Amino acid sequence: YLKRKLSAKTPLASINRHSHLLFVRLVDEKMTDAAALEKLRNDGHAIVKSVEDEKWESVTLNDHCNRADALLAIAEGMLWGSYRFDKYKTPGDEPAVKLDRIAVVSSSVSQAMLDELLSVHQSVSLARDLINEPANILGPVEFATRLQDLEKLGATVEILTEKEMRTLGMGALL
């Protein structure tokens, strides 16, 4: 079945095993450039859509190629595909199913690599959340308060007063 489904033009295939969905992605050894890794990210995003459509909440990625870059690109695409800003959405009749867990089984991917990927994802998600907040909710004072919360994560945050901004020549922001 997979030999018929998989090709260079269609490198991603899925099988519904009823107890689980199985996705197989062909990875060419030559797939190391940015464009190739972006294709893997897009496939990760597509996997998330399929998984959520089927109402699955967890995924396990098995690396049979020992290609950390390929596996991390797919995982990254899955993380971006699972991002939602639905804080103000009215709940529908049917509860939304969101991918909640991505497990990785790989001898080529270290925990430090996964931690870095997750840290970047959480940082970008926070930035997206802040951008998506309406201006009447996230004004300058609330924005500053939320940024101060980043100090708990080890970030250094300095909030300037209007006078300090003028002194520094930041008039365009005032």
Description:
The protein is of the alpha+beta class and 174 residues long. The protein contains 6 helices and 4 strands; from the N terminus they run H-E-E-H-E-H-E-H-H-H. It has helices at residues 2-5, 34-53, 68-82, 111-132, 140-148, 162-167, and strands spanning 12-16, 21-25, 58-62, 101-105. The strands form 2 sheets. The chain has a two-stranded antiparallel ribbon. A hairpin with a 4-residue loop joins strand 1 and strand 2 (21-25). Helix 2 crosses helix 3 (68-82).
List low-pLDDT spans.
none
What order do the strands of the largest sheet run in, or round the barrel if closed?
A: 1-2
Q: Any idea what the shape is?
A: elongated
Q: What fraction strand?
A: 5-15%
**Helix and strand succession?**
HEEHEHEHHH
What structural class should be given to the helix and strand makeup?
Answer: alpha+beta
How large is the radius of gyration? 21 Å
Number of helices: 6
Distance between the termini: 63 Å
Query: What is the averaged pLDDT score?
Result: 87
Number of strands: 4
What is the topology?
Layout lengths: L1 H4 L6 E5 L4 E5 L8 H20 L4 E5 L5 H15 L18 E5 L5 H22 L7 H9 L13 H6 L7
Parallel strand pairs: 3-4
Antiparallel strand pairs: 1-2
